[in-house]
Design goal:
about 350 residues; binds fe (ii) ion; Hypothetical protein af1432; about 55% helix; mainly alpha; single chain
Length: about 350
């Protein structure tokens, strides 16, 4: 580690979330993981959250949900799960360096995208349009964590972790951290973007089977300025984030040259790239087919909720069938989950965190 980066050690330790701050909705006596809990926090409450998230169905479903390139058979192209692991992998060492809570950062990094529908943001937007409800994966993730996992009892995550999940998303908007309620939340918000821009860039331009980099010289020039490959580009961003955060006395990544150049990367990715690689028309048509079929054959279900709980391949399989019948839903991840829920029409737009 270079001298300048080493000087960032523990600079935010006074602003770290503490184990003593952790609170859960339900008492220890009602928690499946109570065997790990105790008055002295021998195991950090946020490490217990990491364990809960690592073993939950929502995280597993992320193994078959689009990150950036839908309907691609190559398993090296990132899915939501690999992106979430990537965010945690980048954010935890930075939390350690700066003196923030590494376990809260880990839980937030792993769990932040648990609420994604199949086919990424196209799925989210399409389901919002069809249902006339604003479906946001950051809210849906909190609903799933609290009311869907573990047969509807929820994971009983700490309020602190749930807030990180709720507050991580910015879409194509500004990357401000004003709404983040902890430094760990702010770190994960920035690390999410740092990971996905450079991971998406790699999957789109550096596999040789998607877009031609020669057609996007400004973006390629920016990527080259940051370094050669995902590792060096993310490292340059995170190093700058550490130095800017040290100067600001809180997580900050908006004033340095790296942040400004990354903002330009964001503008180009959202303005010219994502809409080319997301196979929008094809994905919309698949979702619409399944949504309309579900309205007919399973009127007791909320089609948005059902579809949100499917993986890409499950949805694709349903969309390919002519004359879908209730028997075709047997054995799917969504069917398995809904069979165990008392309430199958949840409010998917409310995180219900006022406790
Ligand atoms: Fe997200
Ligand atoms: Fe993400």
């Amino acid at each position: 580690m270079d001298h300048e980066l080493a000087s960032c050690q523990n600079v935010l330790v006074d602003r770290a979330t503490r184990d003593e701050d952790a609170r859960r909705r339900y008492p220890e006596s009602e928690d499946d993981d109570s065997w790990l809990m105790g008055p002295s926090n021998v195991v950090s409450p946020y490490l217990i959250d990491v364990s809960k998230i690592m073993n939950c169905r929502a995280l597993r479903r992320g193994g078959d949900k689009t990150q950036v390139r839908p309907l691609e058979p190559n398993t090296h192209i990132r899915r939501r799960l690999s992106h979430s692991l990537g965010v945690a992998g980048l954010a935890v060492p930075i939390a350690k360096l700066l003196g923030l809570h590494p376990d809260l950062t880990h839980a937030a990094g792993l769990g932040h995208d648990m609420g994604h529908t199949p086919f990424g943001h196209t799925g989210e937007v399409t389901l919002s349009r069809l249902s006339e409800k604003k479906i946001c994966h950051e809210i849906l993730g909190v609903v799933i964590a609290q009311k869907v996992e573990r047969r509807g009892r929820g994971l009983n995550l700490t309020h602190q972790t749930l807030l990180c999940l709720r507050d991580h998303s910015r879409g194509d908007g500004q990357f401000g951290t004003e709404t983040c309620e902890s430094e760990e939340s702010a770190l994960v918000m920035h690390t999410d973007k740092i990971d996905y821009f450079w991971a998406d860039y790699h999957d789109i331009f550096e596999r040789g089977d998607c877009l031609n980099p020669l057609d996007y010289p400004e973006l390629v020039g920016l990527a080259q300025w940051f370094g050669k490959g995902y590792r060096s580009r993310t490292a340059k961003c995170l190093r700058a984030l550490c130095l800017e955060s040290k100067a600001a006395g809180r997580i900050s990544f908006g004033l340095c040259e790296e942040a400004m150049r990354l903002t330009r990367v964001k503008e180009i990715m959202y303005g010219k790239i994502y809409n080319v690689v997301n196979r929008r028309a094809e994905v919309i048509s698949l979702i619409e087919r399944v949504y309309r079929a579900l309205e007919k054959i399973a009127p007791h279900l909320d089609p948005v909720f059902f579809i949100a709980l499917l993986g890409d391949q499950e949805l694709l399989g349903l969309a390919k069938k002519d004359n879908l019948s209730p028997a075709d839903l047997a054995g799917l991840s969504a069917t398995e989950i809904l069979a165990n829920l008392k309430e199958t029409k949840l409010d998917l737009t409310s995180p219900d965190l006022g406790w």
